[in-house]
Amino acid sequence: DQQVKQNSPSLSVQEGRISILNCDYTNSMFDYFLWYKKYPAEGPTFLISISSIKDKNEDGRFTVFLNKSAKHLSLHIVPSQPGDSAVYFCAASLFGNEKLTFGTGTRLTIIP
Amino acid sequence: EAGVVQSPRYKIIEKKQPVAFWCNPISGHNTLYWYLQNLGQGPELLIRYENEEAVDDSQLPKDRFSAERLKGVDSTLKIQPAELGDSAVYLCASSRGETQYFGPGTRLLVL
Questions:
Q1: Staple partner for A23: which of A70, A90, B26, B89, CB 3.0–4.6 Å?
Q2: Exposed, middle or buried: residue A3 (CB in 10 Å: 0-12, 13-18, 19+)?
Q3: Cβ of A44 under 8 Å from any chain B Cβ?
Q4: Which residue of A has its CA nearest to B92?
């Protein structure tokens, strides 16, 4: 049972435009969500997170939106840069339990 | 601040051989995790330590996998004997709060 789903395996975006990566989850008890970025041959790098008490969190070019009623979160990258080309994983955890449940990842390619 | 360190970065062994991976977490991080990542999948938790204590090892295949975290700092994950299906990336992560920071991983190939 895949509790965290990233239904788009890949996404290509023109440099300078907005990249939108989506993530859906099925467990309504998840209360903390994170996005990680992964380059080849490296471990996942923490990007941004959001608590379930919020619906938006911004950090520079990165914004995460959370829609609890739809059990959906998205990561917006504006403007997209070539260095953003990587695999992006969303992850979720339950309150008081530090176990992260990951999605399968979306490969983002920024076209110069 | 130094990140999570893992070694070796790559390992090739024959099936039925033993193998061990080492992890040094970020200084001051009491919580340490071992994850398994198969190709095309997200990381899956194998075991979580709070200091020296393994507080969640429910996903660790205990017939062949073992782990230890002596003195609550470095950790070792062992597989004995290795099987073909163990070929994957083994990731170590550490945290002091809700955010986990990952090492570069050890890529294991079992022939």
A1: A90
A2: middle
A3: yes
A4: A43
